[in-house]
Amino acid sequence: MTASAPATPATPASPTASSSSIEAFVEEASAFLDEHATRRPTGTGRVVWGEGEDRISYFGDEPPEVDRAKVDAARAWQRTRHEHGFGWITGPTEYGGRALSPLHDLVYDQLEAGYDVPDTGVISLIGLGMIGPTILAHAREEIKQRYLPAMFRGDAIACQLFSEPGAGSDLANVATRAVRDGEEWVLNGQKVWTSVAHHAELGMAVCRSDPSQPKHRGITAFLVDMSLPGVEVRPLRQMTGGAEFNEVFLTDVRVPDDHRLGEVDDGWRVTMTTLMSERASVGGEGAGPVERAVSRSYLTAMLEAMGLSRDAAARRRLAEVLADLTATGYLNQQSLRTLLDGRAPGPEASASKLMFSHNLAAASHLAAEMVGPRMIAETGDWGTFSWNELLLGTPALRILGGTEEIMKNIIGERVLGLPKEPGTDTKAPFRAPTGEQS
Amino acid sequence: MTASAPATPATPASPTASSSSIEAFVEEASAFLDEHATRRPTGTGRVVWGEGEDRISYFGDEPPEVDRAKVDAARAWQRTRHEHGFGWITGPTEYGGRALSPLHDLVYDQLEAGYDVPDTGVISLIGLGMIGPTILAHAREEIKQRYLPAMFRGDAIACQLFSEPGAGSDLANVATRAVRDGEEWVLNGQKVWTSVAHHAELGMAVCRSDPSQPKHRGITAFLVDMSLPGVEVRPLRQMTGGAEFNEVFLTDVRVPDDHRLGEVDDGWRVTMTTLMSERASVGGEGAGPVERAVSRSYLTAMLEAMGLSRDAAARRRLAEVLADLTATGYLNQQSLRTLLDGRAPGPEASASKLMFSHNLAAASHLAAEMVGPRMIAETGDWGTFSWNELLLGTPALRILGGTEEIMKNIIGERVLGLPKEPGTDTKAPFRAPTGEQS
Amino acid sequence: MTVTTTAIAGAEELEDLRLSVRSLLADKSDESRVREVMESDLGYDASVWRQLADQVGVQSLAVPEHHGGAGFGQVELGVALRELGRALVPGPFFSSVVLGAGALLAAQDESAMAAHLPGIAAGTTLATLAVIETDGQWRTHGFTTRAREDAEASWTLDGEKSLVLDAVGADLYVVAADTPHGPGLFLVESGAAGLEVTGLRALDPTRRVGRLTLTGTPAAALGRPGNGTAALEHLLDRATAALAAEQVGAARACLEMSVAYARQRVQFGRPIGSFQAVKHMCADMFTRLEVAEAAATEAARAVDGLPDAPPAGEAAAVAHAVCSEAFMFIAQQTIQVHGGIGFTWEHPAHLYFRRAKVSQLMFGGPAVYYERLLERWGV
Amino acid sequence: MTVTTTAIAGAEELEDLRLSVRSLLADKSDESRVREVMESDLGYDASVWRQLADQVGVQSLAVPEHHGGAGFGQVELGVALRELGRALVPGPFFSSVVLGAGALLAAQDESAMAAHLPGIAAGTTLATLAVIETDGQWRTHGFTTRAREDAEASWTLDGEKSLVLDAVGADLYVVAADTPHGPGLFLVESGAAGLEVTGLRALDPTRRVGRLTLTGTPAAALGRPGNGTAALEHLLDRATAALAAEQVGAARACLEMSVAYARQRVQFGRPIGSFQAVKHMCADMFTRLEVAEAAATEAARAVDGLPDAPPAGEAAAVAHAVCSEAFMFIAQQTIQVHGGIGFTWEHPAHLYFRRAKVSQLMFGGPAVYYERLLERWGV
């Protein structure tokens, strides 16, 4: 038996619903991809110890010029997609979409995974995946026409301006003020943990419009042009040493009322629809450096390279990690199969997210143990010190995009139907948090 | 280096406070023990695989006649102690005590641990350790004179009548009613999880005397003669198969008012003083079958007997268990040293209790893994199926005497000073739980 | 459900099967009935056994059609085993239907299959598998039980087999023994000369265990003597995939029971499920169960050789490890969620706990299943 | 505190020592200063190093009096190391005071001790230990670095030593090398011929690491050539007991920081420490810390040979395992309690996380320390 990574299906599995149109779509998409991209060699999962790039980083953590080049490549590929009708497969035709089903979208993703194309996560994860649908659902017609085509053409990257120093797990605690002034709103406040903001043309800002109402009310959401005066983006350095995130300071930023998303004081509902898409999109698999390292192929090659092939203790720990990793892969495959069958996905996505961070943390600590003292400094040996990047990145996976504690509340309450904690601050009027909170 | 269990000091370590009187006491106690008991051979920690009793049970789980004989032996030894002035070392002389310091008490325990004497836990853990002090603090003079000497002579075993089906973690939720009728109180209700009740002459019952008050008030405590009409003790079979605990049904039990402990409606405070002593006494070490099996000597003999001496995986897991076990032993030794130095013990007792159940569970699962399939049925092989008793007993350690969750609340709030959860039922009048609670 | 003759059941048929088994068990094998029969002499309810055979055909599901079965595979069997595990139904399902029939299939001995599979499928023949010996180790070669062939090419067995599921009452024993050609599997019929069968006190009262002593006991070779290791390895994939289904069925019952209790039990004026300590315990149980469920499902699909499934050896070994750990964890936490009541004999939690430990250990335990997983990958 | 000449400090003296170190560090080596010096060329604050030597005598605590030290033991050193760990003070304390002085003491070479211990005790000589080689393994024999003796009985070393703490800037290197008589320890002075010292990029910026290349480098034998394994094993007990003290000091800082944050940070209208998820996380951290603290304390007492202490080999190995696991666990949970802020570069949590991982691995890591624990017991 050859040691290869668990297979990701390169072709969609038995698409039952409207299969004739799907078949034509597969043919069209394959022709497009064959023309504009290179097919990934099969069996790339195989790791030969000491060969290939020695970076195992969950976060970018790259020099700004490298980062910028990747974003440019992403924009270019998104534009190519868009020009050939694959930029927004499910979108309405009046905004440049193809008006096809989510199944077509999924099938395209599956097909594209077989090709070597630029990673467009910087555009798609937040902008197209979460803010696009929010604009579609909650913005005025002229705003949709102005921004949606630009976003799906790769010209406008969008970011979330949600979290604040005082509003982390308790997102409804936002204190950034939005005060109406005629046909404009004046925004003041500080946002934090905004990924992509340093590349973004657009932001979706969640603001406090009426502090006298209970905290889930009195919130209004806006689309903010990031080039407006008063918008300042500062990189936020995370514990890995890189700066994947930003702080965004809003100082007397004047946003036209037509950039409002949804009704005045109804922004919490708007935000919820945005977040619904997030929970599902996090925790997926990819083909990046982390997926390459946290794999059976890499870890078994590592076992051998570290001279531990016959060490029962190391084998046991490796087997524990691989069992969870492989089973989580099965879970993800089954979710995908469910989607491809045209059925609604179950609550397994939240389990998958928790397992994802568990697996990455377990793998990085196991790797550290296999590496031993060479993990404490860069000796130049391939596949040793490089694990630090992942090791230092994994704590974030338990926090960002909803802490594990919040995820478990959601599973407990929404999936299992357990009662909420008695609320203490949902009825009282919101008061903007004061300075002593950090 | 010989494989022996972590040493328990057979002689007290440097008792600094009032050391001359202590020295005389040590001499006296040693003489008493030499005369009435046999010194335990040193090095009894050594386990020879296949030798000795093959029972690894945390709970008694023994046939009633064996159980009864052990209780008789305990009573007899307590009487002998009492007759020679060691029955109640710290007690007031007017009730048969010696009026010596807690340090003398501890020193005696340490000395006695070096001798082979009957286990008096059935008398001392709850009765002498917890209910005796409560009577001393809260009972009327005539009650003290009537019961305390009998208890410390081994004639009266006392039990707690605290928990109820609806009052587990939330002990203040007791629904057993106490209604005053002239100079008597009429008790009605059901108590549960009462260990020792089937041997007890006395019980301390916590009852609801005024349901119109908030739940921590309106509680009154009583001393109940277990031979009174209306007291019915039924064994409660636990998951191990044995019946270490009881349910106690109180039906129109008439208790004289002079058997009340503390003031009317002030029983919660009385109960708290009783429980304070409990938290400290649980989690100690002994020389019973569990301590013999969950030890370095036994587990390493087992590793060898199971042919795993050179199996790195089994060794690693064994080492993890032994590291925690040994370190917990150090923690307990240090607490003891603190006490012997005459200083107040710190919050380490709660950590020790959590570690105790963790260690026993870890050891029993490790043992099950080492034993393998022979754990699924009694094949007659020594040291294999017998681990079931402990395996099935350990879940209780995370629950009885306060669940782990309650222990962690206590550590969080009382030791670390974290805020309590906002209370929802401490102010409202108590309403007796209705039938739908189980 | 009427068992059809197609080889792969659709989603609707699977759901029908699940409901048939569940409603029959809810009717005839609820907890009080399980407790009654687990302490009876026979150890299970013969009428439930019959009804599962006659009304649903559980025993026949995975037996090929030409041997009297329904011709379905592991996926369909898994649906039924989830329900049997959920209700902790005592009886020789696992021993006869999974291990007995599985061994006959794994050994690929056409005449033995023709002779015995119809009876197993009908529930009239009870088969079981005897592999483990007095040292308690699960192995696929190196048996101390010896098979000897006499001049007339008939075989006799000598040795002792321990920890045999449902040994007492079985009609047919598949016994692993060493031969001069290597390990082999042999058929021994109940009542054979020199065969002694003893029941043992078992950890799980819903899963009986016994011992066989074989003294010059006549036996029939099952397949080619020498094929024993290969047949057992193959059987192990099927058996652990089946066990995984049973484990997740039982684990799901534990989670549902815990969640129901956490919603209803009030302490400190609130349902305990509103406390994060309990809520997160349940969420952790859910997470482990979802992963285990996925592993069990994938193992069944793999054993059935579905086109987009992983290799059977990998998926079965992954499921064996993941479902064993998950069920043990969930069974433990079920007691914790229930507090004192969960620790009583009268509460079902301990029966699941016992089953979880037995399931985890019956094919060797963690040391064996983790190592086996690596071996399946050639690591 | 004025260092006295008694060999065992009383509880009050220990408390004085603790307060002296803590207040000096609070004054001179707060977090912002630590961040400043950890990115400086030197990597530590030379004036803090001097003040700790001159005002408190930390460097001299465990050095015998007749070699210019205070003559205290591991218990007293542990008190100081807890504070240094708590404040993550960069500097050659561990390398020079624990490993350098420790190696000289372990090798029992009187003339070497007389020559170098006074300087180490005064903080004027910086020593360090070079054991690990290019394969990254911690070992006590089987070195590829070779020591050769010439006709005049003087030694030269050839080889490469990796992952040497505070290699750059050290005055004196204790180097483990193989000799024809077995493993030995050798002293190499900075600036020696054929000695090349290179700094490496380290995981923990408060704990610098480097590499030595030795090419015909003149060296002095430390103790009897051939005694290297015994000396290193002995040193390992002292060093891991010292490390344990540093680990629990740092872990306690993490717990205190977490508890303070959980009390003050409000989400959902309540301090997050009132939620059981956070409260129980802190309680678990506390529990692991209490056990680790006990292990560290016992290891120091054991190394000092106190009458009621366990054997040093046992207690040091237990403390090494338990404190390594506890600190790693606590450092991780500290980030989790702090949420997003705990994951920023500006928050100290990651510095503790880095220190925890380095501490766990610097003497080989879990595989090594668990096995070593069993070996210490003869298992």
Automatic annotation (TrEMBL), chains A, B:
Residues 65-155 form the Acyl-CoA dehydrogenase/oxidase N-terminal domain. It comes from Nocardioides cremeus. Its cofactor is FAD. SUPFAM superfamilies: Acyl-CoA dehydrogenase C-terminal domain-like, Acyl-CoA dehydrogenase NM domain-like. This is Acyl-CoA dehydrogenase family protein. PANTHER family: ACYL-COA DEHYDROGENASE, ACYL-COA DEHYDROGENASE FADE34. Coiled coil: none annotated. Residues 1-20, 418-438 are annotated as: Disordered. The keyword Cell division does not apply. Keywords: FAD, Flavoprotein, Oxidoreductase. InterPro entries: Acyl-CoA_Oxase/DH_mid-dom, Acyl-CoA_Oxase/DH_mid-dom_sf, AcylCo_DH-like_C, AcylCo_DH/oxidase_C, AcylCoA_DH/ox_N, AcylCoA_DH/ox_N_sf, AcylCoA_DH/oxidase_NM_dom_sf, Mycobact_Acyl-CoA_DH. Residues 159-253 form the Acyl-CoA oxidase/dehydrogenase middle domain. Belongs to the acyl-CoA dehydrogenase family. Residues 265-416 form the Acyl-CoA dehydrogenase/oxidase C-terminal domain.
